[in-house]
Amino acid sequence: MSLGKIVRGGLWLYLSSLTNNILGFFYWMIISAIGGSTVLGITTAIVGFSSMITSILGLGIFVGIQRYIGLFLGEKNYEKIRVYFWTSLYFRTIINVTIGTILIILSQYNIMLFNLKPEMLRIAGLIVLINSFTIFTTVPLSFIDTKINFLSNTVSQLTKFVTGITLVYLGFGWIGAVTGSIMYATLNIIILGIYTLKHIYPLKTFDIKALKDVVSAGISSWLPGMIAMVTQQTGILAVFGTSGASETGYYYVANSISNVVIMLGSSMLGLLLPLLSSMKDGRKRANWRALRLSLAIMTPAILFIILYPWLPLSLLGKEYIAASIILIVLSIKGIPASIIGAINSLIYSYGLYKYILILGLFQNIPSMILYSILVPKYHGLGAALSVTMGSIIGLIVALVLARKIQYRIIWKEIIYILTPPSLIGAFCFFTKLNWILGGILILTVSAFSYIKLGIITKKDLKEISSSIIPEPQLKRIIPYVKPLLDLIYGF
């Protein structure tokens, strides 16, 4: 399992996530244009609730099964791979089917949860049932064959597009939009299920020892991950319960756009995580390089969104411009979130699971507390403030834990990263510069400054390009690019 294969696998995952966000954004843009923000708000509340329930029921099985499949692949013990995978699937199916059925039964008695009406709760229960089989996504991840994840996500998203938009256009409202989401999940499961049967067949009987091993391996990462998921979905549900569907739609769209911007840089941290886990020395240096590049890529984009938040929001319709302040607040969390992510990855690579639990609790519990205080008064903005303030509290705790493992944050370089786009952003703001000129100015000045300040080195460019571009093509490109790079770095 070479480093190049791991990096390329991470890139396919990044493309998969990026495709989901972009196609998802346009899906909601069209849905909103046809059905209005109410349809969007109800749909996101239902999907958010079912996702939260699925996360709670996960018990770390996704992480645990990946760990053991990887272990047994190294031993070439395919018999145990089958036993551990199918045992995990059986257990997850029992849990999800039970809870999903309970939700459906509650809906039959006209019981409401999180302000979801019975018919909404019934569909949420159906989604929980379907999510029993999302464990199929772990197999290509474990085999580092994530191109199939990208292809499956793309095909499923396109199917969701056609199904959901058509049904909403025909007048089915939020039911049509949710049906599109269900079609996405179902088709994704079918494609990855076929891949799984090809690699892990035949089926095996339930093994209690295998289940104990998988749960034990995954439980340490499950609790922080579950808290993060519950916190995120609670934000959507809290807005829906106190402010209605329209405000929920505003918050959801702003949150999605901010995640796309933040993901531009934070995805790089994920690409280097396998390397950190495999290293005996140099983990801190490698981790800092990943964080430095992540912030350098993400910060100019965040400043652009802060200056021109109305631009992406207006693509959905003029009514969504009202969510500009929500988008600004959510985008700010990208800086502390990236630092937290880098420190969390380093701690995880050392196997300090207690620290991971502490960091997860201190980052997410304050957010949940703040929801109850801020959301009733400030609605979507209150949810955004809760998330961002939770990230700031988490950053403080992460820095304390970083000192405990003797991980030094080079604040001078962080200042070098933040200053150029901030100064240009201030100039654009006070001069009311057009968004096209402002974007070009922020990008070019930031890139040139990062090169001259040593934030992005030739070595960084070389390693990134060699991971993305195949060697034959790279050799053909270098003669054309090298003179320009020599000129810039030698200026």
Q: What would your notes on this structure say?
A:
It is a single chain. The chain is mainly α. The protein folds into two domains: 1-243, no CATH class; 251-456, no CATH class. It is 84% helix and 0% strand. The chain is built from 20 helices and no strands. It has helices at residues 3-35, 37-57, 61-75, 78-108, 118-130, 138-142, 147-169, 173-199, 208-243, 245-278, 283-307, 310-314, 324-332, 334-349, 353-378, 380-404, 411-431, 435-452, 458-468, 471-490. The longest helix has 36 residues, at 208-243. The chain starts with a helix and ends with a helix.
Which parts are unreliable, with pLDDT below 50 for 5 consecutive residues or more? none
Main sheet summary: none
Distance between the termini: 40 Å
Oligomer: single chain
Overall shape: it is globular
Provide the β-strand percentage band. under 5%
What percent of the residues sit in helical stretches (DSSP H or I)? Answer: over 70%
Number of helices: 20
Q: Radius of gyration, rounded?
A: 23 Å
Query: Can you tell me the number of structural domains?
Result: 2
Main attributes of the structure:
491 residues; mainly alpha; 2 domains; 20 helices
Map the helices and strands.
Blueprint: H1 3-35, H2 37-57, H3 61-75, H4 78-108, H5 118-130, H6 138-142, H7 147-169, H8 173-199, H9 208-243, H10 245-278, H11 283-307, H12 310-314, H13 324-332, H14 334-349, H15 353-378, H16 380-404, H17 411-431, H18 435-452, H19 458-468, H20 471-490
Helix pairs in contact: 1-2, 1-7, 1-10, 2-5, 2-8, 2-9, 2-10, 3-4, 3-9, 4-5, 4-9, 7-8, 9-10, 9-15, 9-16, 10-11, 10-13, 10-14, 10-16, 11-13, 11-14, 11-17, 11-18, 13-16, 14-16, 15-16, 17-18
